[in-house]
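Field: COMPLEX_INPUT
Field: COMPONENT_COUNT = two
Field: RESIDUE_TOTAL = 868
Field: MODE = joint
Values follow.
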Amino acid sequence: MTKPVRVALLGCGTVGAEVVRLLHDQAADLTARIGAPIELAGIAVRRLGRDRGALPVGPAVFTTDPLGLVKRDDVDVVVEVVGGIEPARTWLVEALRAGKSVVTANKALLAEDGASLHDAAAEGGADLYYEAAVAGAIPLLRPLRESLHGDSVNRVTGIVNGTTNYILSAMDATGAGFAEALEQATELGYAEADPTADVEGFDAAAKGAILASLAFHTRVGAADVHREGITEVTAADVASAKAMGCTIKLLCIASRGPDAAGVDSVSVRVHPAMIPRTHPLAGVGDAFNAVFVEARAAGQLMFYGRGAGGAPTASAVLGDLVAVARNRLAGVRAASESAYAALPIRPMGEAVTRYHISLDVADRAGVLAAVAGVFAGHGVSIATVRQSGRGEDAELVVVTHRASDAALAATVAELRDLEHVRAIVSVLRVEGEP
Amino acid sequence: MTKPVRVALLGCGTVGAEVVRLLHDQAADLTARIGAPIELAGIAVRRLGRDRGALPVGPAVFTTDPLGLVKRDDVDVVVEVVGGIEPARTWLVEALRAGKSVVTANKALLAEDGASLHDAAAEGGADLYYEAAVAGAIPLLRPLRESLHGDSVNRVTGIVNGTTNYILSAMDATGAGFAEALEQATELGYAEADPTADVEGFDAAAKGAILASLAFHTRVGAADVHREGITEVTAADVASAKAMGCTIKLLCIASRGPDAAGVDSVSVRVHPAMIPRTHPLAGVGDAFNAVFVEARAAGQLMFYGRGAGGAPTASAVLGDLVAVARNRLAGVRAASESAYAALPIRPMGEAVTRYHISLDVADRAGVLAAVAGVFAGHGVSIATVRQSGRGEDAELVVVTHRASDAALAATVAELRDLEHVRAIVSVLRVEGEP
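Field: COMPLEX_OUTPUT
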């Protein structure tokens, strides 16, 4: 029998426990697929006594010393499902430098400091796989890192956060406001007690950085991503979207194109946006994730599936584990980070899209002319205007043609100070073909 | 500069010409991604003089001797986009045995005799990649061959033929009959002059065999696939489907499960079926392809994109070409065919699904009771019955609960001979959750 591949598992929460179960239940298949059995060398946890349900491992396999486990000579591969920047970075850099392959689901670390990990992997000649870090079980890493490597990706548009998609889908279906939908999501376990990372878009921004890095062969970090969450999205916004034949989704949009000076560059942004109900992403409901890719030759592709949860995430981890184990047996290393293009990041002000602006104005003659004049003054062309009088006040909804974020921001700032404009009720981007 | 990777291209039709153009236009990117330039050693064509548009290669690169080209010492990789069983098999076996990597889009050959190619690849220690053979640009090979290798795939349901999907989508949208929709598809270039391979399901069956082989780690050939085309689908069937909240698609369904004797086995079938409009595959329109995968841990995944056309297919070919070129430079070979499970093929009679049966009957008392008795006699449970009288005749539409194909076939045979049953108008399977 071939020598087993020995794995150190860091973390044993929902995902870790599922990895342990799948390793046990599918042992025969994994051995056949890899050509050698997988053995758990150890599982590092914070507390030994915690109830982890029925796991098919003895108590001796657990340790509270993750770094000690990583450094053990009998460990070939390190699987990390703890999350967070430190101490995970220290463990993984240690492992990679020592030539141990790493499989991680740690999107925050990859987006914050992927460079440290990639550099350590190059130094140690080790594999770094992270399919589970973006969109859970949906295979994206290999399609972007391999299948599309003979093509040129123009744009990646994703729904990559299940919590916010659940909330926005519920708001769309029931007409509920954000607070109510969040409460429901929390009760059903779709949102964490502190939902900040999800609803403020931090999680989606981290995934956007990873996707953009892969798609554009350029190192993109979380700090390069323009980020807006969904906490300001109201029931009225959702109703406005419906009236336009749209739905609101938290999108992560990574695109490649010329900047204002004509230099090839990358833009990554996360924000809520209206998209037409006919767009393939519009039908992605509940906590599902989907990533829409536009490439020069391949055209439009979409990848859809469960973005989170113990079993789907564990499936992605195990797929990576099979790959790195095979590579070790073959004595080879996968293609390393591809960052040769090193494209500059385009500032958010240069991002071009359409906008839906809702204004609360006094119902007087000349107001529309004044408002339209402000748009024109900043070169923002208006596609449609809808005015509904309400006695003293009127609601004015303006949808623009494509304009830069900077021009729109300047327009909104000036509108705010305009006489008879009582309030800018909302500003939402409109994505997808009109 | 690293020594170039030299490629022999067999075939220069729509796909081949696009490969040539992309190799030229993206040369710098491909070199950076591979670590060495790609060079075209030669292009084998049937006729030298044919107009191939403006291609960025000189006339000296063309040859009418494909086997001679494959055998040349300066050829590292062979790309085949000719199609058909012979002489493609001879060329590719020759290449693989000589240790030359092969990238092919030849689904017919892979489904008919994939074993010869895989065996030759093992013998020569060469790579065999064929992403373009199934669903064009949609990355499926790597997700099934790698990403899901730590998981267990239960079922693959695909729309894998663009021509028939275009025809059925048109029938659904306009109420046209099959002949009319086919004519339109031919005019628009979606169907070939001889549409047999598409409309009779041969193309989908070949792809189903390839998908099942990958998903279930078992050699599945075209002969193992139950195949029915769409030529019998009528405008009335489409209307009946609509009345049930369904649409009709040509599905390729590969599933793993116990056979009648409880033995783990594989079933692959291609046939038109009604699916609920809420199913993710129902929204796949025009000539698009999509493959829906259900895995134990990953849950539901869907892959969507263009299944055919020069550029999308060329994108898949180039992705494979980058991979095999990298492997050659690294002196390694990708994981070879995984057929260790070697599951038996379950007979079609044991396939279990629901059915929609439309009968033309005499409008007499007792007919419904007699018909219901025949279903009961074969253990086929009825879910709904709808009878619409038309004077002398009545139309009887029966939708069953899940039953085996054998039981349904026996039921239909007996119904055909029943007094007062004038005709079995149609029998369609109903897939997806009720």
